[in-house]
Amino acid sequence: MKTIVKYILIFSIFGACSLILLDDFFLPLLINSNEEIYIPDVRNKSIYKAEKELNDLGFFIEIIQSNYNVKFAPNTVMEMSPRAFTKIKKGRFIKLTIAGDKKNIIVGDFVNTSLTSAKLIINQQGLQLDTIIYEYNNDFKKDLITSQYPKSGKILQTNDKITYIVSLGNPPNYYIVPNLININFSKAKEIISKAGLKIGNIKYEINNDYLNNTILEQSITGGLKLSFPKSIDLIISRDNK
């Protein structure tokens, strides 16, 4: 008889504990897991703040590391999936794409490499092309890089820039002056370089009838043939600002 009472007491205690656990733990957990709320926008926030904010709301975080991005500070949330303000259940994973930091990059030797190949390589490394200078060169075939700055072996960081000097091949019998009027100065520099010529003196003139940095006048008429390369003086528009 005592044994039966003992078992009854044990089962009673076990049952009471089960009910308490069910009421205080399992049921709220089940209810919360089905609760849907709107995801806040954590873009442009540091990963530490974003993760805490989402964890406090009952979400789990999956971090996706991305490369350096000039538009975002390192360790800042660039993208999130699902998108911000989407209504989802608690307990789900949210993917956060994080901007990486700058990295040290050793500059390669691009001399005697095609410009196309060099552009592809530095783009994959995270570097940028700054300026291309074209010149005629008897020692290098057309479109091959004859020199570079910085030189190979130099250590740069992500998003730093490189300048290339590119061969136009053997010098021609004559040089044709390009027509630069109404062309943006940035584009004009490239055209002059490709023609094997150089930029001479530059004068700025206020002119609100043209876009800023537009070529208004050039010292040598476009289409003229020259027996040797000359420098072209330019007058460039500048607005009142």
Secondary-structure map:
Blueprint: H1 2-33, E1 36-38, H2 47-56, E2 60-68, E3 77-81, E4 87-89, E5 93-100, E6 104-106, H3 115-125, E7 128-135, E8 145-149, E9 155-157, E10 161-167, E11 175-176, H4 185-194, E12 198-206, E13 215-218, E14 225-226, E15 231-238
Parallel strand pairs: 2-5, 7-10, 12-15
Antiparallel strand pairs: 1-4, 3-5, 6-9, 8-10, 11-14, 13-15
> Which structural class do the helices and strands define?
alpha/beta
N-to-C SSE string, H for helix and E for strand: HEHEEEEEHEEEEEHEEEE
User: Radius of gyration, rounded?
Assistant: 34 Å
CATH architecture identity of the largest domain:
2-Layer Sandwich
Query: Spatial order of the strands in the main sheet?
Result: 2-5-3
Domains (count) = 3
Low-confidence stretches: none
Distance between the termini: 103 Å
Strand proportion, as a percent range, falls in: 25-35%
What does this protein look like?
- The protein is α/β, with parallel strands linked by helices.
- It has 3 domains: 25-100, Trypsin Inhibitor V, Chain A (2-Layer Sandwich); 102-171, Trypsin Inhibitor V, Chain A (2-Layer Sandwich); 173-241, 2-Layer Sandwich (Trypsin Inhibitor V, Chain A).
- The protein has helices spanning 2-33, 47-56, 115-125, 185-194; strands spanning 36-38, 60-68, 77-81, 87-89, 93-100, 104-106, 128-135, 145-149, 155-157, 161-167, 175-176, 198-206, 215-218, 225-226, 231-238.
- Strands 2-5-3 form a 3-stranded mixed sheet, with helices on one face.
- 14% of the residues are buried.
- The mean pLDDT is 86.
List keywords for this structure.
single chain; 241 residues; alpha/beta; Trypsin Inhibitor V, Chain A; 3 domains; 3-stranded mixed sheet; 4 helices; 26% helix
